[in-house]
Structure formats: structure tokens, C-alpha cells
Write a structure and sequence with these properties.
Structural class of chain B: alpha+beta
Number of domains of chain A: 3
Strand order of the largest sheet of chain A: 3-2-4-5-7-6
Shape of chain B: elongated
Number of strands of chain B: 9
CATH class of the largest domain in chain B: Alpha Beta
Helix content of chain B: 25-40%
CATH superfamily of the largest domain in chain A: TPP-binding domain
Number of helices of chain B: 4
CATH topology of the largest domain in chain A: Rossmann fold
Order of helices and strands of chain B: EHEEHEEHEEHEE
Distance between the termini of chain B: 43 Å
Number of domains of chain B: 2
Largest interface: A-B, 32 and 31 residues
CATH topology of the largest domain in chain B: Alpha-Beta Plaits
Strand content of chain B: 35-45%
Oligomer: heterodimer
Structural class of chain A: alpha/beta
Shape of chain A: globular
CATH architecture of the largest domain in chain A: 3-Layer(aba) Sandwich
Number of strands of chain A: 19
């Protein structure tokens, strides 16, 4: 027999049933009853210093584990501050559940203190959202929220709970069945389409795997490796898909797209069959769509039917969960292998020779200097220490692209990055989320001097919990990526990109009680990084890098991906 | 573009559907919504100007909404589209007979008659109604309220004749 309990307590019971161990949040007026119920409850609440960072931390937690991240904020400003993190999760298909307080149901619409139309505001920011005004609806809403967030194409779900629901009393009866008549999931993939796709893959002369974030979300990394090895074709992982195929795998080329490698983009361009797995043909990957992979047929596998044909028509679409579809695909490929493999052996060999020639022609190599620390040098040194096995969270901008180019990831869920939304200020709080998810592990956050200052207050959170988090500021004194575009496309008219007045991080570290170091000389870099990594607990590093280094290769916005700028200052046309 | 949407009869469901159109800057020309035989569901008919190339995407994104069960593009499909107009016309004695004649031609019912004029109820396809409104306008001052279009598909496979039986979603829906 269920017992009578408060709405706040019921909410906690629901969270426990969903396996939630950590909530990132910030309390406020209407969530007082919820925080009161948490006072003597085993669930861990992490007090961040800004609600936006609660949503980013929940996102980082979810990205690093695959579990649903949970964040919590009060009504009004608390809820509006969460929205950036919600959209970030929406764009990258990250499962989080956001809990917000709402003013007492009778006061809704009266411009009450700290009232905002959270339900309306977050409608376009979420996969789905709920407004709970009756305690009877609370547990169903919470369980539905977790189910929606984590199933199908994952995404953020917000539950807005009025104060009177928190305070009300009801019997908690576990919800055992979810009734969502409009929520249809196609998971298995059409068997005939899968067979045809396998046939096409073997028939192709220049097949190319284009794998995205869907591989990570679906947990299909083993299936991806098997597919790539069976077909023995080159493969790229998008920014969201890094780690889907180990970076040290012999078939892995690198990341494609605006700052992808020459070989990765040329491979896309020249391929005759793109095997697109959990990708959305994002503009940062395709460049000018009309000139993207002009010779290729496309097999597009995705769990979301709305992604099929959105940007690029698919010659063979398959809707389904990647892990399930690809394990069937691999069986089909293996059955066909004995008869099909010899068919195009010569063409496949020539294709590999071509791809390898591109790799040798313009390899992605770090840049070094005796006088100053090159950003690529920094990433190279970080990579030496992270060994492809460490969680690295990044912010948005130049450092993000260099990190994606030079840091290896040999497993999924190590690379945390705000890909679709590109929200600055993400890297540090997301790393905090990951550090709580994996308390035994070292977590690295690499941020720019711009994004660092957006997330600055979380130094207190990091210090409070003694997180084993190495926060590396790649400091070039500029909003580097914006500066790069101003240099290249706005006649070098540098407008509002110089970040003067950067704080002394050694003083800052001392103020927060965090060991900190400013690194200025190339020779210091390796020993100082090693020292930071050898110390258990937080460490803050300000690495002063070359001010005016730019990220190459670069496909200018609207350009075709085979027309990369390989180096400054003049565009180098590529055949 | 004419879209027929079957969706859950829940607060916020309408906002999700319209939000998908307004976020693209589309102006909804007409929208009707009402309960179906199953009180848990509503049927919505939307008339909106959408680029031909984007129509399949809009349909898919609408279907993706959690509250939406079915979305159908009826623009070029065999379908019956009807609209209702309530119209008041100021009619002095000398024009009243002529107005009633016109009403008869268009199959329009008189729902109120007073010394000032008539209140008329017309149903039909939107173009026919437009003609009727124009004619009434020539008799004197008019006031018009239009219901917006309702549509029903004539293709058996697109028509959902009975409300769906509530059933649990796919297997992961059952909570551990």
C-alpha cells in the first residue's frame, strides 16, 4: 500500500526509480519544498553557480555516461537560464531532464514574482515538455519525461512543476506503463532495405563511411568497427561522432567538414557511395550542399525519419536504431562477402591508394615553434597525456577545432563538445558533469580565454568538490574563431574580438584555493602538463599560445568541401 | 498546403504544431481544431503556405511531435475541403428578396432576420464562399466570420476511420 507523501517527495521517489544519482541545480523560491525534501534524501545535489551551467553539467553527465542527466532550477530567471543548455541538448540529441519550479497554479498568468511562461518558452527548446499543475499527474509526467528523453532520438525534456504540486499530498503509486499514443519508434529497420544496402556497399568502388553522433547515442561503436573492417573502407567520424571509431583504427581518416582534414573531405567528395550513419548532413560538414559528394549514392541510416532526405536525398534510406540495423547489416555483409569481395577488389585497392595519397599530401600535423606555444602544440601535448582514453570536454571556437584535429579518442563518450548549437561556456561545466559521473577518472577541459570567462563562477564548484579536473585555458587573447573570420572575410577589420584584461589565473586559483599555473614557454609545456596531471584534484592552467594562429584546413562558409583553404593567407585552389 | 493532423487533446499540443510553422516564419492562413470521436484526440486542419520542397520535411517534423499521431498532406491528395461562413448583411426592404434569391442559389441558410438585415450561414469550398461573400458585399455592409477549412481525405489508407485503441508503446515503455 502506498503511503501519503508530498509532491516534492514523490518527485524524488520518481527520480530514484529512474536511477538518478545526481542533480545539478540551483534552488529558489518555488523550489523550496523540493529542496527541503532533498535535505535528508540520499540523492546527490550539486550546487552550481549559475543555472545555465546546471544544464551544461547535466549535458556533460549525459554525454559521458549515456544516462539521462538531470538539472533543476527555480521559476522565472532560473528556468530561462536553463534554456541554452536545453537547446544545446536538442541540437546534439542529448538526453537530459530539466526540472523547474513554477509559481502556484492559481497565480499562473498573474505576473507573479519570478513567474515566466516556462512551458511556452521551452517548447521549441525541448523534445517535449510538461506543465504539472495537479499532483495526480506528477509521477506519470516524470516517468514519461525520462522515457522520452532517453528513447528514440534522445533529447532534452523539461517538467515544470507548480509550487502547490510540490506542497500537496498524494499517494505515490509507481507508474508501470507509459501511454504515449503519438510517440512511435521505429527501431529495427526494414530487412529488405538492409539487404539492399549490404549489396550496394559491396558493389561500390569507392565506399566511404560517414559516421556521426548517432553511433555514440546508439552505442553502435562495435558494430561500426565491424562494418568498417568487413568492408575495409575508409571512415570519417564527424565532430559529434569522434570516438565512434577509434582514432587509432587503421581505417579512420579523421574528422570531415569545415575544419576537417584534406583527406577526409576529398574522400567525401570523390566517394561513389556514402554510408551515412547517424548523421544529419550538417552544413558544417557538407559545405555547399549542391557540391557535396557529387559522385556518391547515399545510404542514410537514422532513427529519426525527419532526418532522412532533410539536406541530402538518400538513395537508400533506413529508419531504425543504428545498433540494431548495423548488427543485421554486418550479418548481411558477411554472408555476401565470399562472392562479393573479389568483385571490386582492384577498384577498392585503387581507392585506398588514392585516400592514402591524400593523407600523405596534406597530413594533419601539429605545428611547433621554439619561441611560442602553438595551439596545435598544446593539443599534441594534451593528446600525449590523454592517450585516447581520457574524457576531454571542450568549449567552442578555434581550440575546439584543434582539439578535434589533434586529440585522439579510442572509445566513445570521451569527447564532450557542443557541436550543433556551438555554445560557448559549455566546456567547463560539462566537464564538471562528467567528473561527477566518473569520480575515479581524470577529466580534462580545454577552453578558450573567452569561454573560460563565461563559465568562471564554476571554479567554486570545482574547488568545493575537489574534482579531478584539469582545466586548460588556451589563451590567445582573442575570440579566435571570430577573429579568424574577420581576418579572412572582413578585410582584417578586427571588431570586438580582443579580450584584454584577462585575469591572472594564478591569483584566481589562489582566490579559489585551486592550484594554478601560467605557462608561456614551449619548453615548460610538457613538464607542467605532466605535473598537473600527476596531482590528484583540480588544476587550472593558463597556456599562452600564439595570438594570431588560425585553424586550417578551412572550408569557407558556402564553399564546396573539396575547395579547402590549406594555409594562409591566399586561398589555395585544390584540384 | 493543407495539412490534416491527428493529435492528442492535451494542453500545449496545439502550440507544438503551430510552433513548428511559426518558427519558420510561415503565416497560418487558417486553422481548425476539434475533438474526434475519441475525446482524447483532436483533428486539426491547417492551411499554410509552405514551399513545395519543404512540405515532406514539415510533415515529418510534425509527425515527430510527441503529441501527434498522424500527419497527412492533403494539398494534392483526393480530399474534400469545406469551410463555413457566418455573414451578416445590412439589407433595406428593396434588396431583401434579391438577397434571399442569391442565398438560395448558393444553398445558404438564413439563421436570423431582423429589420436591419439577415444573418446567413454558408458552407462550401473556400473559393465558392469567396464568391458568395463578394456578392453579398455588393448589397450593402457585411460582417463576416469564417471558420477556416476542414478537410477529409478520400483515400482509404490516409483516412483513420476509428480512433486508435490505447495500447502501450513499444517494449521499452514498460518501466523496469
Amino acid at each position: 500500500m502506498s503511503q501519503l507523501m508530498s509532491g516534492a517527495r514523490i518527485l524524488l521517489e520518481c527520480l530514484v526509480r529512474e536511477g538518478v544519482d545526481t542533480i545539478f541545480g540551483y534552488p529558489g523560491g518555488v523550489t523550496l519544498p523540493f529542496y527541503d525534501a532533498m535535505y535528508d534524501h540520499p540523492i546527490r545535489h550539486v550546487l552550481v553557480r549559475h543555472e545555465e551551467n546546471a544544464s551544461f553539467a547535466a549535458s556533460g553527465y549525459a554525454r559521458a555516461t549515456g544516462k539521462v542527466g538531470v538539472c533543476c532550477a527555480t521559476s522565472g530567471p532560473g528556468a530561462t537560464n536553463l534554456t541554452t543548455g536545453l537547446v544545446d541538448c536538442m541540437m546534439d540529441s542529448i538526453p537530459i531532464v530539466a526540472l523547474t519550479g513554477q509559481v502556484t497554479s492559481k497565480l499562473i498568468g498573474s505576473d507573479a514574482f519570478q513567474e515566466a511562461d516556462t512551458f511556452g518558452i521551452t517548447r521549441p527548446c525541448t523534445k517535449h515538455n510538461f506543465l504539472v499543475k495537479d499532483i495526480k499527474d506528477l509521477s506519470a509526467a516524470i516517468h514519461e519525461a525520462f522515457y522520452i528523453a532517453s528513447s528514440g532520438r534522445p533529447g532534452p525534456v523539461l517538467v515544470d512543476v507548480t509550487k502547490d504540486v510540490f506542497l500537496g499530498q498524494a499517494h505515490y503509486a509507481p507508474v508501470n506503463e507509459i501511454h504515449l499514443p503519438g510517440y512511435k519508434l521505429v527501431l529495427d529497420g526494414h530487412a529488405g532495405q538492409i539487404r539492399r544496402a549490404a549489396q550496394m556497399m559491396w558493389e561500390a568502388k569507392r565506399p566511404y563511411v560517414y559516421a556521426g553522433g548517432g553511433i555514440i547515442h546508439s552505442g553502435a561503436h562495435e558494430e561500426l568497427r565491424e562494418l568498417v573492417e568487413t568492408l575495409d573502407c575508409p571512415a570519417v567520424c564527424t565532430l559529434m561522432g569522434l570516438g565512434g571509431l577509434p582514432s587509432n583504427h587503421r581505417n579512420f581518416i579523421s574528422m570531415p567538414g569545415m575544419h576537417g582534414s584534406y583527406a577526409a573531405n576529398m574522400g567525401m567528395y570523390e566517394s561513389d557511395l556514402l554510408i551515412a550513419l547517424g548523421v544529419r548532413f550538417d552544413d558544417r560538414v557538407t559545405g555547399r550542399l549542391a557540391a557535396f559528394a557529387p559522385h556518391a549514392k547515399v545510404i542514410h541510416i537514422d532513427i529519426d525519419p525527419a532526418e532522412i532526405g532533410k539536406n541530402r536525398a538518400a538513395d537508400l534510406p533506413i529508419v531504425g536504431d543504428l545498433k540494431r540495423v548495423m548488427s543485421k547489416m554486418n550479418r548481411n555483409l558477411k554472408e555476401l562477402a565470399p562472392q562479393m569481395r573479389p568483385l571490386n577488389a582492384g577498384a577498392r585497392k585503387a581507392w585506398w591508394d588514392q585516400v592514402n595519397a591524400w593523407r600523405e599530401q596534406h597530413p594533419l600535423l601539429p605545428v611547433f615553434s621554439d619561441d611560442e606555444i602553438k595551439p596545435q602544440h598544446l593539443m599534441h601535448e594534451v593528446d600525449r597525456l590523454t592517450k585516447g582514453e581520457t574524457i576531454v570536454s571542450v568549449d567552442v571556437g578555434q581550440h575546439q577545432m584543434w582539439a578535434a584535429q589533434f586529440i585522439r579518442f579510442n572509445a566513445p563518450r570521451l569527447w564532450l563538445c557542443s557541436g550543433g548549437l556551438g555554445s560557448m561556456g559549455f566546456g567547463f561545466p560539462a566537464a564538471i558533469g562528467a567528473a561527477f559521473a566518473h569520480p575515479g577518472k581524470t577529466v580534462v577541459a580545454i577552453v578558450g580565454d573567452g569561454g573560460f570567462q563565461m563559465a568562471l563562477p564554476e571554479l567554486a564548484t570545482m574547488a568545493n568538490h575537489g574534482l579531478n579536473l584539469k582545466l586548460i585555458v588556451m589563451n590567445n587573447g582573442f575570440l579566435g574563431m571570430v577573429r579568424q573570420w574577420q581576418e579572412l572575410f572582413h578585410n582584417n577589420r578586427l571588431s570586438a574580438v580582443e579580450l584584454s584584461g584577462f585575469p591572472n589565473v594564478e591569483h584566481l586559483g589562489a582566490a579559489y584555493g585551486i592550484p594554478a599555473k601560467i605557462i608561456t614557454r614551449p619548453t615548460e609545456l610538457r613538464p607542467e602538463l605532466e605535473r598537473a596531471f600527476s596531482i590528484e584534484g583540480p588544476f587550472l592552467m593558463d597556456v599562452r599560445v600564439t595570438h594570431n594562429e588560425n585553424v586550417y584546413p578551412m572550408v569557407p562558409a558556402g564553399g564546396a568541401i573539396n575547395e579547402m583553404l590549406l594555409a594562409p593567407p591566399q586561398p589555395v585552389p585544390v584540384e | 498546403m493543407i495539412i490534416s493532423v491527428l493529435l492528442e487533446n492535451k494542453p500545449g499540443a496545439l502550440m507544438r504544431v503551430t510552433g513548428l510553422l511559426t518558427q519558420r516564419g510561415y503565416n497560418i492562413e487558417s486553422l481548425t481544431v476539434a475533438q474526434t470521436l475519441d475525446p482524447g484526440l483532436s483533428r486539426m486542419t491547417i492551411s499554410v503556405d509552405v514551399d513545395v520542397k519543404l512540405r515532406p520535411l514539415v510533415i515529418k517534423q510534425m509527425t515527430r511531435l510527441i503529441n501527434v499521431l498522424q500527419t497527412t498532406d492533403l494539398t494534392d491528395a483526393p480530399a474534400v475541403c469545406r469551410e463555413m461562413v457566418l455573414l451578416r448583411v445590412r439589407a433595406p426592404m428593396e434588396t431583401r428578396t434579391a438577397i434571399l434569391k442569391e442565398a438560395e442559389i448558393f444553398g445558404v441558410r438564413v439563421v436570423d432576420s431582423s429589420v436591419d438585415g439577415f444573418a446567413l450561414e454558408a458552407t462550401g469550398d473556400p473559393e465558392k464562399l469567396q464568391e458568395f461573400i463578394a456578392i453579398m458585399g455588393s448589397y450593402g455592409d457585411i460582417e463576416v466570420t469564417r471558420s477556416g477549412m476542414v478537410a477529409v481525405s478520400l483515400e482509404a489508407k490516409k483516412l483513420r476511420l476509428s480512433p486508435p485503441n490505447p495500447k502501450p508503446a513499444h517494449e521499452p515503455a514498460v518501466m523496469k
